[in-house]
Amino acid sequence: MDSHARVVVIGGGVTGCAILYHLAKMGWTDVVLLERKELTSGSSWHAAGSLFALTSPSNAAILQKYTIELYPRLEAESGQSCGYHPTGGVHLARTDDQVMALRLLQSRGKRNGIESEFIDLAEARRIAPILNTDGLKAVLHEPLKGYCDPAGVTQAYAKAARDMGAKVHRFTPVVETRQTPDGEWDVVTPAGTIHAQVLVNAAGLWAREVAALAGIKLPLLPVEHHYMVTETIPEIADMKGELPNISEPSGGYYSRQEGKGLLLGAYEATCTHWAEEGTPANFGHELLPDDLQRIEVNLARAIEALPCLQTAGIKRVINGPMIFSPDLGPLLGPYPGLKNYFCAAGVMTGFNQGAGIGKVMAEWIIEGEPSLDVLFWDVARFGAWAGKRYTKARTKYFYEHRTDIGYPFQEFEAGRPIRTFPIHDKLAKAGAVFGLNFGFEYPVWYARNGEAREDRYGFNRGNWFEAVGEECRAVRDGVGLLEISTFAKYLVCGKAAETWLDRILANRMPKKAGKTVLSPMLSRKGRLIGDFTVTRLDEHRFLLLGSGPMQRYHMRWFEENLLADGSVKVENLSARYAGLQIAGPASRSLLQKLAEDDVGANAFPFLSGREMGIGSCPEAIVVRVSFTGELGYEIYMPAEYQRGVYDALIAEGKTFDLRHTGSRALLSMRVEKGFPSWGPDLSPDYSAFEPGLGRFLRLDKPDFIGKAEAERRAKAGPAERLASFVVEADGVDCFGGEAIYRDGKLAGYVTSGSYGHRLEESVALGYVRTPYFEDGAAFEVEVLGERRPARMSARSCYDPDGGLMRR
Ligand SMILES: Cc1cc2nc3c(=O)[nH]c(=O)nc-3n(C[C@H](O)[C@H](O)[C@H](O)COP(=O)(O)OP(=O)(O)OC[C@H]3O[C@@H](n4cnc5c(N)ncnc54)[C@H](O)[C@@H]3O)c2cc1C
Q1: 754 DSSP β-pair partners
Q2: How far is the CA of 262 from the centre of ligand 1 (A)?
C-alpha cells in the first residue's frame, strides 16, 4: 500500500467518494480513499436515491442543484451508470399555510436559478395519473426532482476518481489515526500505514468511532428510517413516461417510481434511535428488522394522495440506519483545534448533496476555503454544549418533523435549555420568550401582563407583533434593556496585539485606548468572514465583539493565524462574560446613575469604550455603539456580576420607564436603520463591498489578510449592493429569501425584513444587482407569491444622518 498521500479520505460511501472525485478533478490526484469493507457499506447502499433541489438555505439549494446536474456528466465521464431519472416532481399543498410555504420556496428558488411552477390540478393528474387531487389547494412542479441509483452513483464517483489517478483501497479499515509532530497524520490500517498531509473523516455511520481515534467527539446519532417498494401498479405500468416524485409538506412521506411500482419513504412519527452507544464494528450490508406499524401514520397520509397504495402489494421493506447531527445538517470542514483534520459527517441526503459537499470540501482542502458560504453546515456551528442529551432530543424532533413547514422566526424547544446566563430566571419572570443562540437561551420578545409566554407561528404577523411594537417605541422614546450575553466577546492581548489585529482585520486598529472601531475580517480570497466591534482597552489589550454563533469558527481562524512566538493571546470570553445593552434617549442618564466614570456626551462619545465600575461590578467594560439607531451602550461583565448590575438597572430604570426588549425588536430597529447583521445579510458570499462595508477597509495599510483581493474588488466594483426597502405590505412582512423585481425583471433578493414600528412601515434589506441600484427607485418584492410595491433607499430609512445615536 502507498506510504504517503496528500489526502486520505476515510470512508467509501457516497460522501467519501464524491470528495475523492472532486479532489482529483481539482488536480490533487495523490489522494487515497480507505474503505473498511466494500464501497457503500454504510447508509449508502440502501438509500432511496430521491432527488430534489428546492430547499433552504439558499446555498444548500445551489449545492443540491449542482449535485443533480452533475449526474449525466458523471455517467459520461466514468462510463458507469448513475441510474439517473430526471422525472421532475410535485409538492402538494392542502392548507393555506402549505400554499404559502410553497410560494416562499418557489420565490427563494428563483435566486438560485431553480425553476418551478404552480400547475393546475388537471395538469397534476395528467402527469401523475395515480394522484388524488381532492382536497389539494396547490401543486408546485419542480423539474429538477428525480431519482438515482445509489450504488451506481457511488461507484461512478470512485471510478472517475480512479481514472484521474486517485486510489481506492477496499477492505482496508482504519484502526488508528496519529497526528505527527509536523501536524500531518499517520493513518494506520492492517495493510500498513499511510502518512497523509490531510485527513478526512467521511466515515458515515462510523464517523463517531473514527473521530474518537483522533480524540474528538462529533454530535451525531443514528436513527432508523423506513421505505417500502410496491409490486406493479397498473396505472404506473400503463404510463408512457415516468411518474414524477410526489411529496407533501407536513406529509411525513416521499414517493417516486420504482420499476413499475412505487417507492414510499416515511419519516416515522416516532423516531427510533439506533446504536446510541456506538455503531457496531461488524455492521455492513445489513438492514434492521422492519416494522410497518411504525409508518402507519405516514402511510395513511400518503394513501390520501395516492389511493393505489391501499391495494398495492408490498414487494420489499427497507429499514436502514442513517446518522444525523442535531439540526440534521452535515458537519463539514476543518475540525477546530485539530490541524489538517477535516470532517464530512452526518450527511443526511448524500445523493442530493454528495457532489456539492465533495466540491466545497475539495475547495476547502486545496484552496483553504470553499467557494460559497457553507457556515450552516460547518462543523464549527456546534460547540461542546451540543452533548448527547441535546443531540438525541434534536435528532428526534427534527426527524419526526422533517417535512414540516418552516415558519419565520421559528424556535424549537427540543433539548433546551442547555446553557443560561445568570439573569435567565429574572427575564423569564419579566415575560421573556426565549430563543437559542450557540447553546444559550436569550430573550426574543417579552409577553405583556396576561399574555401567554409563547410564540404562535404563521406567515402573517406573529402574536408578538404588538408587544414588539411597544418595545421599539420604548427604545425610541425612553430606554430599553436588552440581554446581549450571547454576543461573542474575545480579549486579544500581548505586545504584538495591535500589529496582529492590523493584519487579521481590515480596518486600522484604534491608536488610543478608549477608542472603538468597526472592522470587517476577510479571508485570504477577500471574502467577508467576520465583522467586529473592536475597542482598545489599553496598550496591549483589545476587546472584540462579534456574532455569537460564529465563535468557534472565529476561534479556529484566530488560532490558525496566531504568531508562532506566542506574543499574542486570544481568549474567548463569550460564555464567561455576560452582557446588557441599554438603548434610547434616556440611556445616558440611566447609565450615569450606575457608572463610576463620567459618561457625558463629551467624556464618552459615540464609538468609544472603556473599563469602568458599573453598580456592583468593579470591572465592567462599557462600549458606546448602536445597533438600534438610538443612543445606546453595551455593558459587559464577568457573568457573576450580571444579577447585581441588572437589579440596579431595573431599580434606577423605573424613573425612566425602562422596558425589557428582545431580539425581534432589535431586528425591527436595525432593519429600519439599514444595519446588516451577520448571518442573514453578511456572510462569506460577499466581500466587504456588496454590503457597504468597504468604508471600513484601510487599503493603505501595509498589509492585511485578503488585501490583494480587496484591492481588486474595490477597482472592479461590486456586482450587487445591499439596499433598504420600504415595502407596501399587507399584513405580511418580508423575512428573507423573497425575490426582488425592477420593471418586471428579477433584480435581487431580500435578506432581512420586519415591520418597522418606529417608521410605521414594513421594511426590508436586500441585495440588488448594481445596474438596478438607484435611490428612490420603484421595485416589487414577492411577498409569499404576491408582488408588492417597494421603494429603494440607498440610505438608512430611519434617521439617515445618524444624529440620534451620536447625540
Ligand atoms: C432507508 C434510507 C433511505 C435513504 N434515502 C435517501 C434518498 O432518497 N436520497 C438521499 O440523498 N439520501 C438518502 N438516504 C441517506 C443516504 O443514504 C446518506 O446520506 C448517505 O448514504 C451517507 O453517505 P456517507 O458516505 O456519508 O456515509 P456511509 O454510507 O455510512 O459511508 C461511510 C463509509 O465509511 C466506511 N468506514 C467507516 N469506518 C471506517 C474505517 N474505520 N475505515 C475505513 N472505512 C470506514 C464504511 O464502511 C462506509 O462504507 C437514505 C438513507 C436511508 C437509511
Answers
A1: 763
A2: 23
In contact, 334 and 342? CB cutoff 8 Å: yes
Mutate to test the pocket of ligand 1, among 153, 157, 200, 349 (most ligand atoms within 8 A of CB): 349
Residue 561 has pLDDT above 90, yes or no: yes
Residue type, 452: A
For strand 617-624 and strand 761-769, is the pairing parallel, antiparallel, or unpaired?
unpaired
| Grid cell at residue 799 | 434617521
72, 12, 22, 69: which is closest to 43 by C-alpha?
12
Tell me, using a 6 A CB cutoff, whether residue 15 lines ligand 1.
Answer: yes
Q: Which residues pair with 9 in a beta bridge?
A: 33, 200
Average pLDDT over residues 465-484: 98
Query: Confidence class of residue 237 from pLDDT cuts 50, 70 and 90?
Result: very high
Residue 4, number of CB atoms within 10 A of its CB = 12
The cell for 361 is 470540501
Tens digit of each residue's pLDDT (9 = 90 or more) over 741-799: 999 999 999 999 999 999 999 999 999 999 999 999 999 999 998 999 999 999 999 99
Counting atoms of ligand 1 from 1, which one is nearest the CA of 213?
Answer: 41
% of the chain surpassing 90 pLDDT: 98
What grid cell was written down for 258? Answer: 420504482
- Using left for φ > 0, alpha for ψ between -120 and 50, and beta otherwise, residue 498 falls in alpha
CB-CB contact of 242 with 257 (8 Å)? yes
Query: Distance, CA 177 to ligand 1 centroid (Å)?
Result: 21
Q: How confident is the model at residue 284 (pLDDT cuts 50, 70, 90)?
A: confident
Mean pLDDT of the region 415-433: 98
Q: Is the CB of 522 under 6 A from ligand 1?
A: no
User: Is the four-CA dihedral 362, 365, 371, 374 of positive or negative sign?
Assistant: positive
- Nearest-atom number in ligand 1 for the CA of 50 is 8
- Joined together, the cell numbers standing for residue 74 give 458523471
State the distance from the centre of ligand 1 to the C-alpha of 45, rounded, in angstroms. 7
User: Any alpha helices (H) in 128-264, and if so which ranges?
Assistant: 150-163, 207-213, 234-237
Q: How many CB atoms lie within 10 A of CB 689?
A: 23
What lies within 8 Å, CB to CB, of 716 at 6+ separation is none
**Which residue is closest in CA terms to ligand 1's atom 31?**
13
CA-based nearest residue to 370, from 680, 60, 685, 62? 685
Tell me the sheet residues that pair with 284.
Answer: none
1: pLDDT confidence band, cut at 50, 70 and 90? confident
